[in-house]
Amino acid sequence: MDDVECTGGESNLLSCGHIEIDNCGHGEDAGVVCSTVLPASPTPPAGASPEPPTQTCEDLVLPVCANMPYTRTEFPNVFGHSTQAEAEPNAILIFSSILPYGCPAAFFQLMCLQLAPPCSSSGYSNIPCRELCEDGLLQCSSIVEQLGAPVPTDVDCSLLPSAGSGLCFEESPNGFPFGDLFNSTAPTSALRLAGGNSSAGRVEIFVNGQWGTVCDDGWDINLATVVCRHLGFEGAKAALPYAAFGEGTGPIQSYYTTCIGNETDFLQCQFQTEGFCSHLEDASVVCSEEGFIGK
């Protein structure tokens, strides 16, 4: 921008008059020193304080959090849900998508503490202890990010109070049987072969509560080897494109997959979740049955 002219009332520099063609060099770059940062919203009158949201206590009936040690919960929660009914779809999405990956009970305790926090009168703090945060998030943050689950993972656990301080919610040493909530529907593995047999078939992964396929773009023996190793085989005989074992249904969970090659879990690879692919391009593998090491 060159020869910029403003009246002073503009809220956006681009609203000022200027010319696109200039004869300036970077030795003439303009700078400013601002006096203060403008508030994001109108400043309340002097002496007034913003009204905090009204917290409402009610019996804890959210099914996925029924095993928490408190029986009363307070809303709105940190996700902005004003009722348990509003929180339930988000809770089910988080729990059903994460359970197959073996995250510890601490993760689900931490999630329930955010989804359905205890009432202040319950005797339990709604602030997680540092140890609960670390045990819950550090072991599962990569899985959460890979799945795209609606869970914040950029939390600095070191800023939280320690267990034993009486200022936070401590992890239960016995955990809670959260897995029992979904035993009837949750898969025992997040990866399966479909349309063939136990050692050959269409690659399908379980993400966000749904089984879906993997696109064959970039599909090669390196990726097939990781899939077969995940399933307990020593290696792969073939990486097959073009729905060799039939077209799958449901979402295409990865449009392009990248593995280093030494992964023992296919879900450690990188998945591109947007792209152009159809089930005509579902990827398949044929694993080597010799040297089956089990899973």
From TrEMBL:
A GO term from the CC aspect: membrane
Keywords recorded for this protein, A-Z: Disulfide bond, Glycoprotein, Signal
A matching Pfam family: SRCR
Disulfide bridge positions per record: 6-16, 133-157, 259-269
CDD domains noted in UniProt: CRD_FZ
Superkingdom assignment: Eukaryota
Start and end residues of each SRCR domain: 1-35, 191-288
Segments forming domain FZ: 52-171
The UniProt record lists the keyword Nuclease: no
Transmembrane segments: none
Classification via InterPro entries: Frizzled_dom (IPR020067), Frizzled_dom_sf (IPR036790), SRCR (IPR001190), SRCR-like_dom_sf (IPR036772)
SMART domains in the cross-refs: FRI, SR
Keyword presence, Disulfide bond: yes
PANTHER family with a match to the protein in the record: DELETED IN MALIGNANT BRAIN TUMORS 1 PROTEIN-RELATED, SRCR DOMAIN-CONTAINING PROTEIN
The protein's name: Uncharacterized protein
Species the sequence originates in: Stichopus japonicus (Sea cucumber)
Top-level taxonomy: Eukaryota, Metazoa, Echinodermata, Eleutherozoa, Echinozoa
